[in-house]
Amino acid sequence: MSSDLFTPEQRSAVMRRVKSRDTTPELAVRRILRAAGIGYRLGGAGLPGRPDLVMKGRCVAVFVHGCFWHGHDCARGSRKPKANAAYWTAKIDRNRARDEASQAALTAAGWRVVTVWECGMKADGFAERLIAEVRDQAATVSASATSSD
User: Fold this and answer.
1) Cβ neighbours of 6 (radius 10 Å)
2) Structural domain of residue 135, as residue ranges?
3) H/E stretch holding 85
4) How many domains does the structure of the chain reveal?
5) Which of 56, 91, 123, 137 lies in the 20 to 30 Å Cα band around 5?
6) Quick check: 119 and 94 in contact, CB under 8 A?
7) Is residue 127 part of a domain?
8) For position 38, which CATH number holds?
9) How confident is the model over 50-93, as pLDDT tens digits?
10) Cα separation, 24 vs 49, whole angstroms
11) Could you tell me the pTM of the whole model?
């Protein structure tokens, strides 16, 4: 017996609504950068990992990661799914491996990478730290409330 509260059709409809673009955290990051007068492009087509935001002149690529989907080491990210656990664990592991490979490829190509974690956005002073990291960051940085990865 399944532990899911939804029928397969209902679960499919719920999962279809999970967005990969224009998520609430991504829109918040975009608002912060725009208010600071920092221009960016969306999508990062042609770059490894397709960053959410790209500042070509600054050679900065910004990834906005959801803690669960990208396997962050915070409380939400370390939560293990109960239904179809093997599938989800493998998927999140693939996401983490892809993220690491994308970050390494961008760094090797001379890009600076900023990773914004959903949980880190709730911390005091997040906007100021993000702006500082984008403006004058010297190495790969992860904006997180729990650690500086």
Assistant:
1) 12
2) 20-143
3) helix 85-108
4) 1
5) 91
6) no
7) yes
8) 3.40.960.10
9) 999 999 988 999 999 988 888 888 877 777 888 788 988 899 99
10) 20
11) 0.78
